[in-house]
Every structure is written in structure tokens, then in C-alpha cells.
Amino acid sequence: MGSQSNALGLSSAAVPLLRDLVHERLGLHYDGRQDLLADRLAPLAVERGFSSFLDYYYLLKYDESAEGEWRRVMDALSIPETYFWREVDQIRAVVDIVVPSLAQSHPGLPIRIWSVPCATGEEPLTIAMLLDKAGWFQRATIEIHGSDASGAAIAKALAGRYRERSFRSLPPPMRDRYFTKSGDTWTIDPVLHGRVTSWSVANLKCEPDVAARAHSPIVFCRNVFIYFSESGMREVVGLFSRMMPVPGYLCVGASESLLKLTTAFELEEIGGAFVYVKRRAEPVARMKGEDV
Predict the structure, then answer these.
(1) Is residue 133 part of a domain?
(2) Does residue 264 share a domain with residue 192?
(3) What are the pLDDT digits (tens) for 134-178?
(4) Distance CA 206, CA 161 (A)
(5) Please, where are the H alpha helices in 29-66?
(6) Is 69 inside a domain boundary?
(7) Residues of the domain holding 57
(8) Is the pTM of this model over 0.70?
């Protein structure tokens, strides 16, 4: 088992139970990576005074006060690998083509964009930069919502301070326009930061969390499905297909494919980038005994 969990003296026999529970609750897939899971969760178990993962499993599975502990688990398992301007061609396509189309077809209505998981905020702020550069905040009501399963990541997004690693792809003129350097960090321009309407904690495996924002016609859900099992992906995409409006634009990462998971979204090339598009409403389920 993992080196950290061994060093902390934890019995590891129950790690498969934790693996399955994490998959059920969060969608994260740790088959073949149990050592990594054990190393991430070992400090949490030790802090609770447990000598085995079985005790920690029972806490998460059965204790009525476990919600707070699940927030710590989500922080521990979070992978904050993100940066400004990541896969920017897809964002450009949304700003240059999708947003104008929605503004024309639904004049006067707010255009809602949901970035989930947004990690520490680089993706929704990149979206805001390009919308600002194109003048869209003066032409339409734009709502950008950023959500992540990790409360620690959302706290950093709210703070709006970033280190050099986040700027490895951002053009220097954009950095100079929207950030102020202070010591070894850069602080986002407060006006641009305010363009992100809300920041929230959301678990993609929790239907109420998804329902709160999935009515958005534009959803960025990028580079999270690579950590999900196929069944977990199918469940989340099913929620999107039921809840997103028509047309609905679902942006996933370049290395992620939904083609085997859904017929509700069709892969389309828009402005040189690929986006999954919902063009028709989901059929209403028939009641038992209703004539076909």
C-alpha cells in the first residue's frame, strides 16, 4: 500500500471499500491507483485518531456528521492542475460564435456560463477576459458561475491571487492588463474578478448541486472525466442532458470523448474547436401502462 499510509501505521485492508465509496459519492475512479488514494486519505484518518482505514470508512459511510469530513476528502483528492488560457481555442469559439448566437436568438435574456470544476478559478476568469476583450459585458447580461468540489480551491478562487505557474500560457499583455504583481503573486483586477457572478462548492455526483447550475446553455466541464469511470461519466452526462436547455453547449477536455456515452449531445466543430451540442429536447418519459 502507499508509502505515506505505511509510514503512518494504518491498516490498509479496507482501502478497496474506501475506493468504492469514493467512486459512489464523488465519481472518482481509483481502480489500479489504490496506493494514491491511501496516501491522500491517510493523514485525514490519522487526524481522526484512527489506526485503520476501516474505521475511516465507517465514519464516511455511516456517521451522521460525516458531511464535514467529506469536504475534507474532496479537498484531499482535488487535483488543482489548471492555468489561464488552457485549451483557449474552445473558449474563443464560445465567445466568438456561441455567445453572439444566443444573444441574437434570446435577446434580453441573461447568457449563463457554468465552469465546473473550476479549480482555483483560472478557467472562468479566462472566459471573463475574452468576453471583456470582445466587449460582451457592455452588450448583454452575462453570468459566469464557477464551481468545484473542493472548498479549498473555491477559497483560493475567491481570493484571486495567483503564482507564476498559472501564467504559463497567458499572453503577457493579458497578464499586464488584468493582474497586478505583489511580491511573488499576481492579483486579479477586481472588476474582472467581479464578472464571475458566483463561486460555489458543487459535487458533480450530487444531483441537487448539478441542478442548481445546469440550466446554463453553456457548460465547461473539462478535464475531470479523465478521473471518472465510464459509469460515473454516463451519470453526470445524463444529468446534463436532462437539465441543459436547447441549444446547450457542453465543452469537455481535448482528451475526453462522450461519443459512446450519449446521443443527446452531438459533436460539432464550432469556430475550429469541438463542442458537444444539445439540439433537441429530451423526450418526456412515458408513464407505466401508457400507449406507445
Answers:
(1) yes
(2) yes
(3) 999 999 999 999 999 999 999 999 999 999 999 999 999 999 999
(4) 29
(5) 34-47, 53-62
(6) yes
(7) 3-77
(8) yes
